[in-house]
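Fold Annotation — chain and its backbone
Next Lines — sequence and tokenised fold

***
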Amino acid sequence: MSLLGTFWAGWSWRGDIAAVTGTRTELKQSKGETKAVEQARSVEHSKNERLHEIGTQYEAARSENESLPSIVVAELRNGNYRLRDELASCETRNLSSAAATASQRDAGAVSREEIAGAAVRIARDSDDQLRACQAVVLADRK
């Protein structure tokens, strides 16, 4: 009987050691998985911060562009900027010079200045948006 008890105790002890070894292996795997998840979250967090920075920079540039048309109009009127002939003549080319009065020409000049200011703002907004999109793509590829 004691031989049977010893055999059973030994067998039970081997089973306990196997269970402990299995538990240790599972614990190591869990630690590895936890570390991988933490690293993935860290990468995701840093990407989100970078995207937030890009968005903030884009919105700041966009708000700076709000005053751009009035600045361009003022600079055109002060003579600091000049329009190229293609834009300067686009509104009055359909009118014959004999039929256009002085007030119509002045109104055309004001309109051209405002159109130029709006065009510069549109171009600047487009450039800023393109830069932001490119920055997002580059941040995503890292």
The chain has a mean pLDDT of 75. The chain is about 85% helix and 0% strand. Helices lie at 2-64, 68-78, 85-88, 102-141.
